[in-house]
């Protein structure tokens, strides 16, 4: 009760301060409040205590605040505009078990709580006075995350685009060694290149995502360790793509693995680089793994498990069957848009937003660095909100293509 009184007292004092302002100049709305609710299945007295960010959709200006003892976040001095609110907090496994024993089951991972409210219009006192509610959802926090995606190809000197030089980099963001054996990643069916097309799988199924192709790290369980703070590079093909025609490409002969398609005339096998297993391929004739502007997910599944997963044709027709990957299996997800008004293929709780790639190639999307531990281990930012977690770097006229090289975690733009 005491807390409640002091909360309302704060509002009253703040309101008084605004009304007494002699300059009469609008300094923004105070006490813009959001009540953050835990997901269903959590203890009824669980109160959110983490941060939240309010982002101006046009200017990009952001406001940060931390929830009070009642689970309410309050922002002050907020200028007029249209906003997105994002909430995200990591919850340790012990806390998760205590707050939601039934949901936790025998899960041993930490979890991530996240929530979003999009297009919050703050244009009047009434808009600002409304206390909106945000319902959090939870996902398993992944130890391995996508750290770099180079997928949109390079330019040739004759003005063409060459897209065979793709690679993906995965990073162990935890403090324990993780085995890559059996880890899958796949790209999602859908169109994120234009606002003119919506994605029927996304519209119709809220509990799963649909993969067009899935590749998997080989090994029986303990063959491919990845130490904390280390990364692994998976090339589409482990070739050196730098030629006179393609001076801005990359040399991928040093990749750790490659996504070789044995049945494809566009896929070259480098005998020195181990191949990923092709775990699923919706389009039998697909010649390479990966797509331009692709959105990617990571999960663990054996052949048997993939056999047991549903294969579903698109709700708007067609005979191609995509692999249905339930949301709760997905460890990391990165949604990529070519243009800002493209339509979603990945659900909000897995990625609150998207990496905006833009059309200037060659470009690379890279996860930012959150902080460096005392022992020097880099920790990447993973709030399941790709517009904040990733930075896109594209080519500057006259520069070299060194920024596209894998394995770089000391770039200023990642800080
Ligand atoms: Ca090979
Ligand atoms: Ca993530």
Biggest sheet character: 7 strands, antiparallel
Bound small molecules, by name, code or SMILES, are: calcium ion
Overall tally of domains: 2
SS elements, strand count: 29
Termini gap:
43 Å
- Roughly what is the average pLDDT, rounded to an integer? 91
Q: Strand portion, in percent? A: 25-35%
Basic shape = globular
Gyration radius, rounded: 23 Å
Low-confidence stretches: 1-6
* Computed structural class: mainly beta
**Assembly classification:** single chain
| Count of individual helical segments | 7
Helix content: 10-25%
Would you give an account of this structure?
By secondary structure, this protein is mainly beta. The protein folds into 2 domains: 139 residues, Immunoglobulin-like (Sandwich), CATH 2.60.40; 271 residues, no CATH class. It is 12% helix and 33% strand. The protein contains 7 helices and 29 strands. The strands form 8 sheets. Strands 14, 15, 19, 20, 21, 22 and 23 form a 7-stranded antiparallel β-sheet that branches. A 6-stranded mixed β-sheet has the order 18-17-12-9-26-29. Strands 3-2-5-6-8 form a 5-stranded antiparallel β-sheet. A hairpin with a 5-residue loop joins strand 10 and strand 11. The relative contact order is 0.14. The N terminus is likely disordered. One calcium ion binds next to loops.
Quick synopsis:
12% of the residues lie in helices and 33% in strands. The chain has 415 residues and is mainly beta. It is globular, with a radius of gyration of 23 Å.
Keywords, please?
single chain, 415 residues, Immunoglobulin-like, 2 domains, 7-stranded antiparallel β-sheet, 6-stranded mixed β-sheet, 7 helices, 12% helix
